[in-house]
Amino acid sequence: MRAEHTLDARRKRSIDLDLETLDSITARRSDLKDASGVCGPVSTYSSQQLCHRWYRSVLAFSDHVARRFIETVPDAETVLDPFVGTGTTCVEAKFLGRNSIGIDAVPFFVLATRVKTDWSPDAASLQAVAGEVLETARKGARWLSQSIPEDATWSDLTPRAWELWGEYLKLPSVAPVRFLSPRVYVESTLLREAIVELAPFELRSHLQLCATKSLVRGSRVGFGPEIGFGIPPADFDTFRFFWKNVEEMACDLRVLNDVRAPRTRVVLADSRDLSENLANDSVDLVVTSPPYPVDKDYTRQARIELVFLSQVKSLGDLRAIKTNMLRASTRQIYSGDNDSRFVEGLPEIRRIVSRIQARTSRDSDTSGFAKMYPRLVEEYFGGLYRHLTGLRPKLRRRARCIYVLGDSRSFKRVYIRTPEIFGRLARMAGYEVTGMQLLRIRRSTTLRKPLREVAVFLRAHRDS
Ligand SMILES: C[S@@+](CC[C@H](N)C(=O)[O-])C[C@H]1O[C@@H](n2cnc3c(N)ncnc32)[C@H](O)[C@@H]1O
Fold first, then answer.
1. Count of alpha carbons within 13 Å of 350, Cβ hemisphere only?
2. What three-state secondary structure class fits 261?
3. Which of 55, 126, 235, 431 could disulfide-link 426, Cβ–Cβ 3.0 to 4.6 Å?
4. Which residues does a 6 A CB cutoff place in the pocket of ligand 1?
């Protein structure tokens, strides 16, 4: 009876974005455009991008995939993504009327997900305050173009530029300086400061996200599988881009302000240890994509953001974040790491480790990285095992879990079938593997060999 009641209530709350609803949202957007001139032409928006476009990461999985997985379990009231990144699962859960919990170890991703799932700011207030912010920042930047040319790099800066803008050009030693344009950095900092000065608390994070997005867009950064050099758009105008971000956000908020949305909780934590952050018996469905063992350091992907928002000021801050993460990169292995103990002796992992070792000695590779590979593989899978064990008591009796995982050939080209090994770990941790589904085939960047991305479906065995 209770279950029926809550399910009904949930259905009522649901803003189920099926195609029909999407059409009506699109229609409302065009009304908005006519009424206020705020939105751009409706054809330039894909309805599916609502909120997702506020901040996207190249590592995000597709909103369609997240959505489809959530839809497959219609009676799941609370959805968890323990590796939430920039919040795709939580946003889609909210669209579908489900409560959700997102967890990530990187503070910037937590902020982005919180903002993307907070539809409470009034759109008109957001724009009004952003207008004041913009005016203040623009005034502050009056003499900027004369002292820092658009294409100046840090080594081009004159003593005059330092004299005028030194305070705004200060960067912590962990900043990815070579990616940053001094001019865009100063402009973004002026925006950030004006936000702190002028924005009420409830609008601050939303506006900070818009300013951060401007800084990244105007930086010399390209996102492939790894962060690398890229070219910002020609004639990049930080302030105009900030305003565009605000407009997009306001446009979506106008639609979403009226929605009685389900709850989303976003937590900064290490999902290998869920004891403190989740109540027992609280989760019906897990939809997630943990890091793959491909030697990727997620803090590098978000370094500009972390530094700009003062979430990282020193190497110590960075290390504190990395120690809370699943070990997926050689830049993330520390002397006290000990998750490997959970997978010691597992034949699948022993085989990978000995293949890596054999190839390392065949190649006479004495590099520090190669030495770390076997350890990394063990720590990675050990961390996943610890996560799975900690998760079990948090799941309700009929809970389902869907994990998207990818193969790897990043360590001496040894093929790691991550989904199958994950399945094995899940069985060891008391889950039943109910299926696997191939989602797509990637190509490894250097080897051009196929790598699968697979969804692994689990159900937890509970005693009662
Ligand atoms: C593949 S990304 C997830 C992307 C996400 N599906 C999205 O749509 O943005 C993996 C995420 O796991 C996070 N992560 C890694 N280790 C973690 C840990 N131990 N606890 C919580 N989050 C972790 C990383 O910061 C990263 O955001």
1. 5
2. coil
3. 431
4. 57, 59-61, 83, 85-86, 88, 103-106, 109, 270-272, 289-291, 298, 324-326
